[in-house]
Structures are given as C-alpha cells and as structure tokens.
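HUMAN: I'm a chemist; might I ask for a sequence paired with its structure tokens?

ASSISTANT:
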Amino acid sequence: MANLRALPFQNIALSLSGGGYRAAAFHLGSMTYLNHCQWQNKPLLNQLVVLSTISGGTITGVKYALCLKQEKSFATFFGELYQFLKADTLLPDALGILNTPNAWGNSGKQRNLINSFARVYQSQLLDGQNFGFLLDPTDPQIPEFVFNSTDIEHQLAFRFQKRISRNALIGNGKADASISMEEAREILLGDIVAASSCFPGGFEPLIMPHDFTASDSSLLAVAWKGETPGADKKPLRLMDGGIVDNQGIEGVMNLDKSVYDNTGKPYVGTFIVSDVTTKQVDYPTETPGRSPILLNVSLRFYNLLAMILLAGLLALIWFTSNKWLLVGSAVLATICILWLVAGLWLTKKFIRSIKKTVSQESPSFLEDFSILRAVKLKYVVALLGVRVSALGRLADVFMKRIRELNQKLLFGNKHWRYRVVTNYIYDLSQSEPVDNNDRLSPIVKKANAMGTSLWFPSEENASDTAALEALIITGQATMCHNILEYIEKIRKERDPELPAEFLAKFDQLQPEIEQLKQHCLADFARFNTEPEWLFRQMQPGQG
C-alpha cells in the first residue's frame, strides 16, 4: 500500500475544520481559490471527490454540497454563503425563535438554543432542504461527503455521510447507533449543521432521534423503536464533531482505505487539510490590581455584621412605635436572616457536592471548610477566577492534543506521505512577504485574531478590512501559498521506490504541474500587493 498512490491533483479530498464563523469564512476563501485555479482547463475544485467537515466547516460544506445538487454556479454559492455570514444575525434570530412559543408547534423537538440555531440554518441558508436531497449515491455532481458530529454515549464520531456504496450507514458503525440512508432521508440539513457545530458549554446536545424527526410515525422514529416492548434503541446525544476530530481527517482516511480494500488502488490523489486552529494558545497573565473595598474583608465579617445588624433591628422593632420605621426594620431584618440562612445552606451544599465529586474519602480540610469564611473575599474571588480560567483553557488543550494525534495518524502513514496539503490559517504569519509593498500581512494578522464564535466582532474602524473579508482573503492567499509548497514538495521528495508505471504517469503530468505553479506564483505576488483582487472578482457585477 505504501508504494501505491493516485496522481497529484487527481481525485482531491478536502477536509474543513471546525472553528465557528472563523472556519466557515476561511474555508470559503480556500475553496474560492481552488475554484479559481485551472487544472487541465477546468477549475481545480472540480477534482473534488471527498468532502469531510467539522463544526464551522460544516456550514460551508453542507451549503456547497447543496448548491452543487441545485446546479448553482460557484459564484452563486459564494454569494449566498457570504451574504449569510455578512448578515451576522444567527444569534439574535435564534434567540427570537427560542422566545416564540408558536414557532415550535408540536414538532417534538426540544425547545432550546441549538434547535433554534438549526431552524435558522434551515430557513436562511439551506433552502429548507432535507438530507435525502443529497443522498443519491450515483449522482456524479455531489462528491462523497462526511459531515461529522460526536456521539457522546459511545464517545465516537457520528457521521452523516454519502458514500458510493448504497449499504453505507449513517452513524458510528455500531448497530444500536447507526441508521440506513433511507431512514436518514427525512433529516433536515439544518439539524445536521447544528449537530456538527454543537460545541460543549455553549449548546445542549441534540437528541437522536427526537430532534431529527418530524413525528413519531416517521421512518427514522419507527426504525429507532424495537420490535418488542422495551427493545427500543437508546437515544443518542450528539455534539460538536471537533470533540473527537476537529480536522475531519479520520473520515477521509477511512473512506480511502475502504476503496483501497475493495479495489487495491488508492482513491485520493491529493488530500487538502484546511484548518483554522490557533498555532499557540496564549494564557493571559493576570496583573494584580486594587480590589474593591467590599472585597477587602472576609465572609465571616459580613456574617458578623449581619448578626449585629439583625440584633439591632430586632431591638428597634421591639421598642419603636413608628409604623414606617417598624416596616423598614422588619424588611432589613428579614434580609439579614435570609443572608445567614442562605449562606449556611449554600456552604453545606457546596461542601457536600465537592465530597461527592472528588471522592468518598474527602480530604480532611473539607470537614473544616469554614476556614474560607475567615479569608478575605478578594482572595476567594481570585482563587475561583484562576480556576475558572484554567477550566476554560482545557478545551483548547484537548483540541490541540486531538489535532496532534490525528496528524500523527495521517503523516505517520507512508501511504499518505506525498498526498497531503496542509492549509493552516497561520501559515502566512510565518512566511516572508514577496516584496516591501506587502499589504497582505495586516489582513492575515486580523484573520488570525478572529475568535471561533458564531458571530463577528463589531468593527471599530470602518476603514479597516472587516473580519469576514479578512478571513476570506486569508483563505484564498493561504491556499495559493500551500499549493506552491506542495508542488515543491512532490518534486523534491520524489520517491524512487514508487512503481515505474506511476513515475511515468507522474512525469507526463509535469507540464500541467509547471503551468499550475506559474499560475500560483503570479497570483501570490498579486495577493501581496493587491490582497482583495480575487475577493472583488467574486462580488456581483465584478469581473
């Protein structure tokens, strides 16, 4: 297997990583450049045979597959997705749906934020279409695709996929966690995008089948029921595909291996891994500052103050005859009592939950947890703040580790050594500008500063390149740069152990490869001096 490979730029696989709107826009730019490049007198993107997407990448990937099926031009695809991202109303529109009871009817779906997002995707981006619209396995217009989510119950990828094989299942391969293509046809495309981008902490899990069916009599709902009472499949909780693979690498590798096992030949000639992961996670340094005066005392001080105040108020209530003073004192006394009772109850509940979470043999300090009552509140706040910040960074650590493991799986396999193009958002941050008239670097810097949320930051300076435009341009220029890097790599690292038949065919491709190289060199020079040129060509009425 190591000595066999398809020819470069033939049968392209493209994986689009997660990363919110940052990912959706960067991948849109990357695909724009692939469509701009010519390979054997056709757009290079026409060579796409496999598309694997995660989270934010699924927004772009599902929309692209839908436009292909609808026989829309690439320019139309670009325009529709660009306008959706530019409108940037996903969050407010979803909140509007969430707060409108009549919008839910008797659908059976959970009334929550992620299902509200799914409805916005479905109506505003995906033309109300369902999965079955894309699932004809013999349709040559649609590449094989894998839209990835994560099955929390089994801790495995859950794949909404279209394969050439009619027997391919949707799910994770397990009998109790997979469905047939026929059963999956009714699933709405908006629900698939939502399941793929349902990141932990921000959203609730989507429940399979309840959040994916229109009624209990639907084919999917019936398929989930057992033949006898009590034999129903357990519901699955689906969340962000990036939890187990944020680059979509495994889906492509599995598909290529499946084809190789059946035919003895590799399927994918070039595998482009497009990723918006931050190269290095910066942990902010906390600068100690002056604490508010109310935090410079301990909780015990406030408890003592409440008891003294309560005693004084009770005395005042006992001796006063003024009606309004009596009412005011009673209200304040009630507040003091509630403060003391609530503080005692919350402290005991917190200690109990810590004991239950940590272990049955809790450290002895938990038995005397009241020591915290004597500590100044500013130190307690700082203690909690640092821990919350560290927990927030755990997701970045896990994602980075998963990314490294999947990369080792890919690059450690000799079968893939000469077939992979990496297209990382930070690649141009490390490269030298073509000349001193470099206008691209500030745009790349702005794109890399964009977060991975499902909205764009407000622009403080209208004259600056907007974040959306910066991400698209960076995707275009980065893809151009990395195609050049790939061409140099496959020429310099020519493997003499490859079969003579392959080497002969590879040599025959040299004129086309050289033509592509010269085309990319000219384009990259132009990106440095006129970064917006391709972006402007994609605007309506521009050439």
